[in-house]
Design brief:
0% strand; 80% helix; mainly alpha
Length: 142
């Protein structure tokens, strides 16, 4: 899928999120607190910065562009994922299972619905700011 270069950093992070979701699902039958601790660490290092960039830059701009429905969905998803990772990190296997499934669905939603709306509705300055906050290839200068 062709993606605006300024959203490629966030989009490429989705690949890592899907890998994480699959890893959680593979481990679910033997889920432990040490698995939960590793999940919490990856969540804090990889997903929270991604969520933060969306919540601080994309969502206010989308709200102003008349798409509060997309913003509300992202906020609900992020809240559910944060709750699930907290429970999973304490060893709750059912929360870990829910986390993996919800993360995969959230990535699909962002790729199919959120990012195309951002590309069509948001000003270049907003996308440039997203690129500054996301890793590597999304840089506005690349």
């Amino acid at each position: 899928m062709k993606r605006d270069r300024r959203l490629r950093g966030l989009s490429s992070e989705h690949h890592h999120a899907l890998v994480l979701a699959r890893a959680v699902e593979r481990q679910i039958d033997a889920w432990s607190t040490s698995d939960g601790a590793r999940l919490r660490d990856r969540f804090d290092r990889q997903l929270e910065p991604h969520f933060f960039a969306e919540e601080q830059v994309l969502l206010p701009a989308l709200r102003a562009a008349g798409r509060p429905d997309l913003c509300e969905r992202v906020e609900r998803d992020h809240a559910r994922l944060r709750r699930a990772v907290t429970l999973a990190s304490a060893g709750d296997a059912s929360a870990a299972r829910a986390f993996g499934a919800e993360l995969a669905e959230h990535v699909r939603f962002e790729e199919r619905d959120l990012f195309p709306a951002c590309e069509s509705l948001l000003a270049g300055e907003i996308l440039d700011e997203v690129a500054r906050r996301a890793p590597g290839e999304s840089s506005p200068d690349s």
